[in-house]
Amino acid sequence: MSESQNGTSATGGRIDYAEVLKRIPHRYPFLLVDRAEDYVAHTSITGIKNVTANEPFFMGHFPGNPVMPGVLIIEAMGQSGALLMSKSLDADVSGKTIMFMAVDGARFRRPVRPGDVLRMHVIVTRHRGDLFKFKGEAFVDGKPAAECEFAAMVVETPA
Predict the structure, then answer these.
(1) Which of the residues 26, 61, 121, 127 is marked catalytic?
(2) How far is the C-alpha of 125 from the C-alpha of 61, rounded, in Å?
(3) Is the pTM above the cut of 0.90?
């Protein structure tokens, strides 16, 4: 099915929760993207995570002062990049997985807490075949929360 047939376009597209589930293999409690917007094929996407008090990591990070772990913010940016790759390549997720290859220059600017809406703007900085390099920036209320550069590629899923 082409993008125009399924209700989105190659630019400015919104990706709802149902499509997220079709495009990447992550599931609760490790699915860290609820939806996406501003999708531009092979170029950029904005992943959105509604951070709730019920997230399992908040029980231990930190009791009485809940903060989303920085590595999970990076993972959420990675999942946003994987969503961009999967849709751009129209990848068959039943036989392939998009996996991190590298993370560089991670910086954390402010804590992410229950009730925050984490918006992850991910842009493609380089693309060749099944390999993508990205720059990701995560924001809460328009203020920077984290940033990093990362790479991912499509790999065959073991049978």
Answers:
(1) 61
(2) 33
(3) yes
Pairing mode, strands 13-15 and 35-40: antiparallel
Sign for the CA dihedral angle at 9, 116, 149, 155 comes to negative
**Is the pLDDT reported for residue 7 higher than 70?**
no
Contact 48, 120 (CB under 8 A): yes
Query: Cα(27)–Cα(43) distance, rounded to whole angstroms?
Result: 25
Burial 78-91 (b: 16+ CB within 10 A, else e): bbbbbbbbbbbbeb
Q: Any idea what DSSP says for residue 30?
A: S
Q: Per-residue DSSP letters for 74-131?
A: HHHHHHHHHHHHHHHHT--TTTEEEEEEEEEEEEE-S---TT-EEEEEEEEEEEETTE
Mean pLDDT of 52-71: 96
93 sits in the region (left: phi over 0; alpha: psi -120 to 50; else beta) called alpha
Q: What is the DSSP letter of 21?
A: H
pLDDT (tens digit per residue) in 111-122: 999 999 999 999
Please confirm, yes or no, whether 61 is among the known catalytic residues.
yes
Q: Tell me phi and psi for residue 136, to 5 degrees.
A: -120, 140
